[in-house]
């Protein structure tokens, strides 16, 4: 089950060999194929070749690309996320700021805002759900700058002490969403 470690040069060689193999499979001749002559192409066409990497000791010297760890692929979310864009107003230091929701669940919300939010800080939230505004409290779990966009931040907020009534409000909102909005896509 474990993947072998591969160097960048190994990847380049494999890509080059794959290009040559593809050209051969399509019946094309190229300078890279050299003096090879077509024999009976029906026997070699679409043949699959396997290449093995070097021993681990040699790889440590060359600087390798390590395999991706499986544990990073595991979904940690316990509640379904709904990708609904709506207005969220948060209060920070007596100032009200407007943000846009990216996704929302029974435990929290991901927002896009113009400012970075202080981690582990509790905010007063007002979220517009359909045609009504509801108040919640939320703790900032993370806040990070959006890549290649100097003026936007993504922040994750965890709802704090939701009452059964507030959970019902959120559940009713999720039930009212269109199928398109309900699709749980990674974001």
UniProtKB/TrEMBL annotation:
Q: Which residues belong to any copy of the PilZ domain?
A: 75-174
The name this protein carries in UniProt is PilZ domain-containing protein
Molecular functions (GO terms): cyclic-di-GMP binding
């Amino acid at each position: 089950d474990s993947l072998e470690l591969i160097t960048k040069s190994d990847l380049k060689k494999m890509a080059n060999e794959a290009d040559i193999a593809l050209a051969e499979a399509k019946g094309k001749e190229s300078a890279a194929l050299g003096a090879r002559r077509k024999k009976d192409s029906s026997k070699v066409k679409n043949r699959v070749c396997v290449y093995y990497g070097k021993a681990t000791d040699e790889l440590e010297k060359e600087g390798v690309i390590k395999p991706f760890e499986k544990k990073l692929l595991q979904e940690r979310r316990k509640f379904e996320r709904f990708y609904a864009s709506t207005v969220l107003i948060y209060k920070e230091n007596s100032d009200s700021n407007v943000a846009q929701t990216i996704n929302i669940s029974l435990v929290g919300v991901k927002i896009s805002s113009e400012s970075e939010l202080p981690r582990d800080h509790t905010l007063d939230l007002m979220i517009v759900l359909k045609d009504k505004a509801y108040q919640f409290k939320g703790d900032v779990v993370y806040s990070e700058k959006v890549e290649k966009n100097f003026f936007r931040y993504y922040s994750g907020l965890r709802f704090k002490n939701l009452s059964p009534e507030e959970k019902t409000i959120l559940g009713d909102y999720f039930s009212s969403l269109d199928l398109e909005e309900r699709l749980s896509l990674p974001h």
